[in-house]
Specification:
Length: 208
C-alpha cells in the first residue's frame, strides 16, 4: 500500500502533465486563430509576389528584343547638312545639331547633345599621326567605304564607359583616317552610337 507522500507525488505529476497538455492545446488553438485572422493578408501578399515574379519574367523576355532593336530605323538623314572638302574633295553628311570644333579645312565635328560624341577626318594618311597610321594587321576587320574602296576598321573599348573609339583607315590615293568617339556606358548606348556612325559613314564619299 502506497503511503500518503507517494500519492501526493503521483498527483502532482498528473497535474503537471495535464497542465503541459493543456498549454499545448491552448497554443495550437491560439495559432489557428491567428492564422485565420491573417489568412486573407497572407493570400494577398502571395498574389503580389506572384505578379512581381511574372513581371520580372516578362521583362527578361522583352529585354533581349529591346537590346537588339536597330536604332538606324529611327535616324532620319533627310535634314542633315552636307560638307564638301575643297582641298581633298571628300564629302560627308552630318546632323544639324553637330558643330565644328575647328574651322575648315579641319573636319572635326561634335554632337551638341553629347560632346563625347565626335567625328574627325584626317587626310592624307601621313598627317594622321603615328597613333592612327597603323599597319593593317592590327585592325579588327576589312570593310569598304565610299562604295568599293577598301579600308580597315578597329574598335577601341573604354572600360569606364566614358568614351570608346572607332578608327577607320584607308590607303586609297593619299589615304586617310576617320576617328569616331562615342559614349559607351551600356549596350543600348553603344548600339545607338555605332549605328549612328554607320549612318554617317554611309554618306562619306571620296573623290575618284
Amino acid at each position: 500500500m502506497l503511503n500518503p507522500l507517494k500519492w501526493l507525488l503521483i498527483g502532482a505529476s498528473l497535474i503537471f502533465i495535464l497542465g503541459i497538455v493543456g498549454l499545448d492545446i491552448y497554443a495550437i488553438k491560439k495559432f489557428s486563430l491567428i492564422e485565420k485572422e491573417f489568412e486573407g493578408e497572407i493570400g494577398e501578399i502571395r498574389k503580389e509576389i506572384q505578379i512581381l515574379k511574372e513581371s520580372i519574367e516578362q521583362l527578361k523576355r522583352e529585354l533581349p528584343e529591346k537590346l537588339e532593336e536597330n536604332p538606324l530605323k529611327e535616324i532620319d538623314t533627310s535634314s542633315w547638312e552636307t560638307y564638301k572638302d575643297e582641298k581633298y574633295g571628300f564629302e560627308i553628311k552630318y546632323p544639324k545639331d553637330w558643330f565644328f570644333l575647328f574651322p575648315p579645312p579641319f573636319f572635326h565635328i561634335a554632337n551638341k547633345k553629347n560632346l563625347n560624341n565626335t567625328l574627325d577626318i584626317r587626310m592624307p594618311l601621313i598627317s594622321a599621326g603615328s597613333a592612327f597610321n597603323l599597319p593593317p594587321e592590327v585592325f579588327d576587320e576589312e570593310i569598304f567605304i565610299s562604295g568599293n574602296i577598301p579600308a580597315f576598321k578597329k574598335i577601341y573599348p573604354d572600360p569606364s564607359g566614358k568614351r570608346c573609339m572607332v578608327l577607320i583607315q584607308w590607303r586609297y590615293g593619299e589615304g586617310g583616317v576617320i576617328i569616331y568617339e562615342y559614349p559607351c556606358k551600356d549596350k543600348n548606348e553603344i548600339n545607338y552610337y555605332l549605328n549612328l556612325f554607320d549612318k554617317l559613314l554611309s554618306t562619306f564619299k571620296l573623290p575618284r
